[in-house]
Design a protein that fits this description.
Keywords: DNA-binding, Transcription, Transcription regulation
Helix content: 55-70%
Order of helices and strands: HHHEEHH
CATH class: Mainly Alpha
Shape: elongated
Protein name: GntR family transcriptional regulator
Number of domains: 1
InterPro entries: Tscrpt_reg_HTH_GntR, WH-like_DNA-bd_sf, WH_DNA-bd_sf
CATH topology: Arc Repressor Mutant, subunit A
Largest sheet: 2 strands, antiparallel
Structural class: mainly alpha
Number of strands: 2
Pfam families: GntR
Strand content: under 5%
Strand order of the largest sheet: 1-2
Number of helices: 5
Length: 122
């Protein structure tokens, strides 16, 4: 697992974001076992308490579940999985729109450029 951390957001939030991106891409499939908190901390070279907080938050959001002493797994809940994907898309769109608005590009031009670029990169 390879995560490049930045100094703008707390590490546990960045860990959660990484998991969300992996879920949205299909790398982490529903029901898939994920590393233990300690294993994750060792892999990412982060404090175990940070890994614990990320897992606790992901469990609260329904992204992962843990049954008894079994390893944690990615949720099977289709609504949660859909919401993760939608959240990532909306975040990307919001960032893009904010960037484009600062240079006053007409909406029609933006949509044409997005369509052209999207189709070219398929």
């Amino acid at each position: 697992m390879n995560v490049k951390f930045n100094s703008r957001e707390p590490v546990y939030v960045q860990v959660m974001q990484h998991f969300k991106e992996q879920i949205a891409r299909g790398v982490l499939e529903p029901g898939k076992e994920i590393p233990s908190r300690r294993e994750l901390a060792n892999q990412l070279k982060i404090n175990p308490n940070t890994a614990q907080r990320a897992y606790k938050e992901m469990e609260a959001e329904g992204l992962i579940f843990t049954e008894g002493n079994l390893p944690s797994r990615i949720t099977n809940d289709e609504q949660v999985l859909h919401a993760v994907r939608e959240e990532l898309i909306l975040d990307a769109v919001h960032t893009f729109v904010q960037s484009v608005k600062t240079i006053n590009v007409p909406l029609k031009d933006v949509l044409d450029l997005v369509k052209e670029n999207y189709e070219r990169n398929e």
